[in-house]
Every structure is written in structure tokens, then in C-alpha cells.
Amino acid sequence: MARDCRRKVQPCKSKSLAETSPHFFKVILPSTLEEKKLGIPERFAKKFGDELSSVAMLAIPDGHVWPVGLTREGSKFWFQDGWNDFVQNNSICAGYFLVFKYAKKSIFQVLIFDKTACEIHYPYNAPAQISALQDGIQNKPESKKSKIEDMPQKGDEFLHLFEESGIYITGKHKLLSKEEKEKAINIARFFKPKHPAFMVFLRAPKIIHPTVPAKFVNKYYRENAKFIKVQSSDGREWLLNNTGIYRGQLRLGNGWARFSNEMNLKAGDICVFELMREKDFVLKASIFKI
């Protein structure tokens, strides 16, 4: 009797996006380049939108990580602030094909394919950078980097080196755990604000009156500003009362609770506020969901 060597084929069960490392792709159209933003597929946004912060990190195979603002309008998300810089620096043109792999914590690994359907040539290969961003492990290539990568553990030096990077933090940083400090270091390394900025650590579910660091206040704050305007990347705005300066630090008053609720802030999140206009003290908020 002839032996039947055919293997019985079992039906394939596709895994959901939540069970695997989710991917999506985008074809770059002329309109994409004109609008200087890129939409995220609605199916992906529906599944993962709640865990995305206002700033995404786009990591490409050459080791570079680009901070790009995520704008949200209802159930729709798109990459916007900083997206055009990413496009220009990687010479992305109409007809290019980009594959996005979501690596959690608002980090995306991106592969770029040109019009020939071949992956572009990247300057150098340093994929360990994305692992460093995810895990807080500083696995660096040999190159000149910001001093913040060699962050010592002493509180005063920790504070000073953050200020050198353009980000001010309050004296409460001395209460941070080693893990919290590592997360703050990674944000400072890869966010690189273009304007003077300060960082707020949400160590409790609700903070009634967060404070602006004294050195930031001394350098940039004008006492005649009765209100402080906070903006998000999607254009929403909040007015916060100025409750006065205590021990050199400016306390953010009424309006913070509404901002916190509408931005869905939780314990463990880190907020970076950039000073967009010094005259009337307008701050742009970037929220890092940790």
C-alpha cells in the first residue's frame, strides 16, 4: 500500500495586533509631503491610542532616534511636529514606502524603502540605541555624545547636567529612584527640546500645584504674567493661574487639574514643558507615558 506522505495542514490562526509586535506601512504621497504630517492607520490607533504619549520616538536602523510630535483629533492620530525634519534628513520622497514596527512606550522602529522597492542605505548600523531607549540601558557607539549619557548619581551633578542639556528640574529629583532617573535621562537624550524647558515628574496620581524650577523662573519668568498658557501638540490650550513664587519656585495653580484630567496624566508620567513665548509665558507640553 502506498504510504500517504502528505501532512495534514492545520488551519492558520492569525494573531491579533495585541499579541504580536504590530506593524503598519505607509506609502508617501505628494500630498503627504505638502501637508508635512503622516496619518496613523485607524485600526492601529484604536488598539494602541490610549498608551501613546504626545511625543513618539522614530528609530531607524542607523541608530538615530527622532522625537516627533503625535497629534490627536478624536480617534485619529498623525505624526506632525518634527515629522518634516525626519523626512528631510532621510531624503524621503513621494513614492517611498515606510514600514513602522511598534515597540511599545511610543517607540516605533522604521524601515525606509525607496522607489526601487529597496531599503535605503543608512550611514551606520547601531540598532542598540533603540534597546537603550526602551530598557534604560546605555549601550552606546563610539562617538561624541551629550554629557547626559554619562550621568553620575550625585544629585547636584544630575541637576547640573540636565540644565546643560536645556532642561531644568526641581530639587525633588533627589527623591527619584534609579529607574526614574534612567527614564528621565533617556527622555533628555532623545527629546532634545529646541526651546528652554523644564521637567515635571508625576510621582503621585494627582498633583495639586506642580512647580517650575527656581533657576528656570529666575532666567525666563516675567512677574507681570498673571496667567500661564499651556498648549498641547494638537492645539488645545489651558490657562493656569499664577499662585505666586515660593522659595524661588513658581507654583502652577487653578487650571492644572483640568489639564491633568484632559491629558489623562497618571503617576509615573513625565511632562516636559517648553517655553514657546517668554513675554506672556506660553508653554508647550510633551507628555511621556512611562
Provide structural commentary:
With 290 residues, the protein is an alpha+beta fold. The protein has eight helices and 15 strands. The chain has helices spanning 30-35, 42-48, 83-89, 128-135, 155-164, 178-191, 214-220, 256-262; strands at 23-27, 38-39, 55-59, 65-73, 76-79, 97-102, 107-113, 167-169, 197-201, 211-212, 227-231, 237-246, 249-252, 270-277, 282-288. A hairpin with a 2-residue loop joins strand 12 (237-246) and strand 13 (249-252). The longest helix has 14 residues, at 178-191. It is elongated and about 60 Å long. Residues 1-19, 124-132 and 136-153 have low confidence and may be disordered.
Detail the topology: elements first, then pairings.
Elements: E1 23-27, H1 30-35, E2 38-39, H2 42-48, E3 55-59, E4 65-73, E5 76-79, H3 83-89, E6 97-102, E7 107-113, H4 128-135, H5 155-164, E8 167-169, H6 178-191, E9 197-201, E10 211-212, H7 214-220, E11 227-231, E12 237-246, E13 249-252, H8 256-262, E14 270-277, E15 282-288
Strand order, sheet with most strands = 8-9-14-15-11-12-13-10
Strand content: 25-35%
**Alpha carbon gyration radius:** 22 Å
> Span from first to last CA?
64 Å
Give me the count of strands: 15
- Poorly predicted runs are 1-19, 124-132, 136-153
Largest sheet: 8 strands, mixed
Number of separate helices: 8
SS-derived structural category: alpha+beta
- Percent helix range: 10-25%
Net shape: elongated
Order of helices and strands: EHEHEEEHEEHHEHEEHEEEHEE
Average pLDDT taken over every residue? 77
